[in-house]
Predict the structure.
Amino acid sequence: MTSDEQQAALEHVGKAWDWFSGMVGISATNLGIELGLFDYLQEHAPLTPRELASRLSLQERPVETWAKTLVHYGLLIVEDNDRISMAPGVELMVCEPRTLLNLAPSFAYHARFLARDFLDLDKFFKDGRAVSPSRHGPALTRNVADQTAAMHEIFVAGILPDLPEIDVLLVEGAEVLDAGCGTGHLGLLLCENYPAVRYTGVDLDEAAIVDGRRDAVAAGLQERVSLLAQPVTASPGASFDVALLFLSLHEIAMEERVTALSAVRESLKPGGWLLVFDETYPETLSEAANRQARMGLHFEYTEMLWGSRVPTRRELATLLTDAGFAHVERRSVLEGSFDVVLARVE
């Protein structure tokens, strides 16, 4: 091995340790959230690890190891007399109340659900048989709802106002169909921000629909929000002004996508709009090296076992054309990590 080869190998070894650190960081951060360590520190810091363990009735040595680990990774800082507190800004990421910067649901998602799924990927690589995420039960449904809530807020407050074709219809009181709505949280935000909107969400996850109906009643929006546990193909024809596919297209089986999109088109009135908000998959290996490809790659890899397939931009355009849509237009948002695709019914 030449010195140049050895140096290159050492650089890759260093990167590998960064990846290992990521795994440890996810676990430690998620434990701090679930066990209430961060919340307690937010109220009572600075504390020694021994004091923290004692007050939460936890074992001293594991708490000390947790504290030292997150001091190393920068989430905790050391103050006088070997006491710890959270580094500035960390509370926004891991503590209540939930803000747009809070990643607590994502830490739980990666530490609990994906860690379990990854154990089965070797079998999937050999036989290609998808495993339904339903095996995780209602806990995953609630977690996904919590994860996407912040993105819904960004979408409604920061993206829709820059889409005049859609915004004007919402202001005027559009009938909105959300295909793959989950708990329908997006619908609640739409109705709160656009007082004349009426919203119908459809999803196959019955647990999500039950949760969403409860949330609609709690928000006093049950007269304007309808949530249905059914496939999008059961939606009534030509009755909606706007249809949404929000981070849901990549979860529709490849062989069912044209049928599903055709059903969405048929549910729209003449002149109605479809808005697809999703990641896009890099078309080539070279494109995969771009930073903008990260979200698409991340979603496909983490949901690969479920049978999810993130479409490339070319695949999405072809799907919409095959489903009978016209005037397909793509706009990149959030620094190119996501695409908004608009398509109209003639």
About this structure: The CA atoms of residues 156 and 190 lie 7 Å apart. The chain is about 50% helix and 15% strand. Strands lie at 76-79, 83-86, 175-179, 198-203, 225-229, 240-246, 268-278, 326-333, 338-344.
